[in-house]
């Protein structure tokens, strides 16, 4: 079932989003060669606690961490670890914030120091593809319009959209209907209605789109060892257009 949120519920989710945004802005300051994704994990949990919020994904289906930290060829659900980040690495930090029962979900890819032109372009295309998808999140459009806009742009840039992991509805629980693929045909899928809240979170690879799973049962990485990036916002569908509940500001 797809739940529709009231204005009050959306405003509460937006407050959770503000805390999530503040967390990402602090994480951006931390990212440099020599730190670890475990440093980011420890910081995030402490920062959220000080804001009166909690990491929703910690304990979700047995997941043990406040963040997902996916490095280089890891697509998503990378475990935070004490391995040093090196100059030129890229890392995606994904988290879900719970503030008094309201949820917000956002992922961001960061370059560690100076990254290669290939990695820089990957991040730029992935981020732009997310916003092209968001532009399609209009009342009366269909879910397929979002994925079609993302896939068309990414493939024109000679990159590949991951198929195995997709966006979703969010609130009152972490993963709700509808499913939001980042590929597919325009005009297909459920129609978007005022009050729906979804994530748009394309994962894009420099090589092929296929993924493989690590032995931990969580972490997905590119099957061919190519780089992967991800950007994600939580979006409310409103009569006035898509409202980004995790918007970071002018340089978002």
- Main sheet attributes: strand count, strand direction, barrel closure: 4 strands, antiparallel
CATH class: Alpha Beta
- Poorly predicted sequence stretches spanning 5 or more consecutive residues: none
The gross shape turns out to be globular
Number of helices: 4
Could you give me the name of the CATH homologous superfamily?
A: Creatinase/methionine aminopeptidase superfamily
Radius of gyration: 17 Å
CATH topology: Creatine Amidinohydrolase
Beta-sheet strand percentage?
Answer: 25-35%
Number of domain units? 1
- Taken in chain order, the helices and strands follow as HHEEEEEHHEEEEEEEEEE
Named at the architecture level, the CATH assignment is: Alpha-Beta Complex
Quaternary form: single chain
Helix content: 25-40%
Number of strands: 15
Between the first and last Cα atoms, what is the distance in angstroms? 32 Å
Helix- and strand-based class? Answer: alpha+beta
EC number: 3.4.11.18
Domain Peptidase M24: 12-239
Catalytic activity: Release of N-terminal amino acids, preferentially methionine, from peptides and arylamides
InterPro entries: Creatinase/aminopeptidase-like, Pept_M24, Pept_M24_MAP, Pept_M24A_MAP1
Q: Would you write up a description of this structure?
A:
With 252 residues, the protein is of the alpha+beta class. The protein has a single domain, classed as Creatinase/methionine aminopeptidase superfamily (Creatine Amidinohydrolase), CATH 3.90.230.10. It contains four helices and 15 strands. It has helices spanning 7-30, 37-50, 117-135, 143-156, and strands at residues 54-55, 68-71, 74-76, 90-99, 102-111, 160-161, 167-169, 176-180, 197-200, 203-205, 211-213, 220-222, 228-230, 233-238, 241-244. Strands 1, 2, 4 and 5 form a four-stranded antiparallel beta sheet that branches. Strands 3-12-11 form a three-stranded antiparallel beta sheet, with no helix packed on it. It has a three-stranded antiparallel beta sheet with strand order 6-10-13, covered by helices on one side. It is globular and about 45 Å long. The model has no long low-confidence stretch (mean pLDDT 97).
